[in-house]
Amino acid sequence: MIMDTLESAFKSLSIARRLQPSEATYILELSCASSGSDVLAVCCSNHSVRLHSRETLRQVGDFQGHTAPVCGVRFSHLSPHQLFTGSADGTLRCWDVRRPGSDATQVFRSDPTHSYCSFDVSCNDRVLCAGTEQVREDSFLVFWDARMVQGGGEMGRLLGVYSESHSDDITTVKFHPRLVDRLASGATDGLVNVFDLSLGGEEDALVTTCNCNSSASSLSWTGKDLDQLLCLTHDEGLHLWDVAHPDGDDTLTLLSSADARTLVQLPDGASLEYFVGGTWLSDEERILLVGGSNHGELHLLDCSGRGLRLIKSLKGGHSATVRCFQWDAISHSLLTGGEDGQLLLWKAGAEEISVGKKDSLKSISSMQLKTKAHRKQVVQKDRSKPA
Description:
The strands form 7 sheets. Strands 26-27-28-1-29 form a 5-stranded mixed beta sheet. A 4-stranded antiparallel beta sheet has the order 2-3-4-5, with no helix packed on it. The chain is globular, with a radius of gyration of 20 Å. Helices cover about 5% and strands about 45% of the residues. It has a domain at about 1-20 and about 265-370. By secondary structure, the protein is mainly β. It is built from 2 helices and 29 strands.
């Protein structure tokens, strides 16, 4: 019954609000506080982090400070006022969203040679982990104590690094939504690793390794007990693994496709050219996958071990590649942002209210920004499960 309600909500989605870009910047990623705040944060291709009203989309402030591309933005799980960002400038930063325009409350650094291309924060907000670009022959998972240093210091406490598990840029790290010590990481070396940080050093903490045979783009914890791992790759592959028993003989592959675009046939000649990402809908116990076309059309897909099924195509919104989305299960609304600089709020049965400039931008060629990061040639490396 719940799924029927959700399907109805998806099928009646239309644009409720549209924020037109005021400058030629891509929207790369977005994050909403879990509760207690109306603030939405987006990271942009000009290295800034903007704050918007979640309901009206109007900009309410921004943060400047990063000096290189921002690789992600995450709200604290426990405080709606704390926002974390990571950047290729070699810093992770914590901001107070009640003070737009202020300096970061904390700055996290490691070795000066480290450039971060992914990060996440544990579900209890105690640990930050960042994945680095390849440094000579090595790539690193860097860990910090994320709790505020006494006196609001500049440098968060460095807990240590893992250096043996990946051999190329670590493009995605994802803490488990409930288990504080469980972490997954993926890289352009084609490996997806699952760690139990409570087991000590890197060799002991690495509990299983899966091979996606390509460059990992994103990871999501899914499944009724959140013991499945969804991996999307930079060349549109999709892999769904059961990692409930990482100490077993093998991980169980529930679904695997080197090009998952072939798993679904779209009507009316519509094209599925890339995947934006996937998320677990806990109430409905389903995976929502969002794909799109390079001219901005979006496709909402149901993903199961049997394959992909189209739920709804969304047209008339974006005019270029969509880079990020977030589904709000409470309000049954969808937020999307992309390379046309637009921020869109989709709601069931809504009528559009435009916010900001009236003229929409096509793909912003002046940015000279790659459509997808880390599309480097991947050298396949076979890796057996650690003993």
